[in-house]
Amino acid sequence: MSRELFVLTYGALVAQLCKDHEADEDVNKYLDQMGYNIGVRLVEDFLARSSIKKCRSYNETADIIAKIAFKMYLGITPSVICSKESGNEFSLVLDKNPLVDFVEDLPVGRSSLCYSNLLCGVIRGALEMINLPADVQFIQDRLKGGDVTEIGITFLRKTDDKKHRRNK
Amino acid sequence: MSRELFVLTYGALVAQLCKDHEADEDVNKYLDQMGYNIGVRLVEDFLARSSIKKCRSYNETADIIAKIAFKMYLGITPSVICSKESGNEFSLVLDKNPLVDFVEDLPVGRSSLCYSNLLCGVIRGALEMINLPADVQFIQDRLKGGDVTEIGITFLRKTDDKKHRRNK
């Protein structure tokens, strides 16, 4: 399947939310929330297709998101940077963000819009379903003049806590 | 690229429109209009990728929509039925509609919703850009209890008129 139809449909969704909500912050929040709901469902599909059973570290998890999940669903492979010594903060660096393929600039008067914020929600929702709560947000965005597009993932539990995780 | 992310994002778009508009008719109209705007842009991508130069008949056009465009953007190939002797009415019959992959039923109280109406708009917009104005709508929908999902395309000009078409 080619991604143009998806990218244009996503643009229609963002435009609709901008029409509905005056504040960029609200649009960002809705995109994140929609993404979350999508991630919660998408993770099953991902686990089934990828046959991945378990990640042994945050590092491996971030790698799988970039190299398998992004590749599978968006056709790109961001590079992964472990940004802190703590070992629970990572950046996915996208040279090219397919979601903005047809977007030149942010809509007028929408300078705080996180256009692709759905992606953060998707990652957050999917991670939460496998008991890896995380904070996910854009750190840089080419649409806002950044050199690259960068998504930050901060895993919210220490690795040691993982043995205590609930089975749900 | 796998289509699950697209299908779930589309679901989020429909849910958002249902939240915004009480009447199913309004949601259908917005989906069609969004699809139209998408089709107007998608057609360039389609012509570039498919290297199709010209269709010699409505029949050939309907065939290309089903066998090349649907395949390219949705990964399915509907069958094409020429439904009238007039030669300008066609049906695309979808055994499986990927847009409803994760949808069991129409939302409660939304019995007149044309869930996948975006597709009609996309086809209409794309055809209009190549000077083939058409009326495009769902004739049957499995989500509404139809045996199959069927999209009707009625080309609005007689074949004879094609020689008069404008270059724009």
UniProtKB/TrEMBL annotation, chains A, B:
It holds the Pfam family TRAPP. It is found in: Endoplasmic reticulum; Golgi apparatus, cis-Golgi network. Gene3D superfamilies: Trafficking protein particle complex subunit 3. GO terms for biological process: Golgi vesicle transport. The keyword DNA-binding does not apply. It comes from the Eukaryota. GO terms for cellular component: endoplasmic reticulum; Golgi apparatus; TRAPP complex. Keywords: Endoplasmic reticulum, ER-Golgi transport, Golgi apparatus, Lipoprotein, Palmitate, Transport. May play a role in vesicular transport from endoplasmic reticulum to Golgi. Belongs to the TRAPP small subunits family. BET3 subfamily. Homodimer. Component of the multisubunit TRAPP (transport protein particle) complex, which includes at least TRAPPC2, TRAPPC2L, TRAPPC3, TRAPPC3L, TRAPPC4, TRAPPC5, TRAPPC8, TRAPPC9, TRAPPC10, TRAPPC11 and TRAPPC12. This is Trafficking protein particle complex subunit.
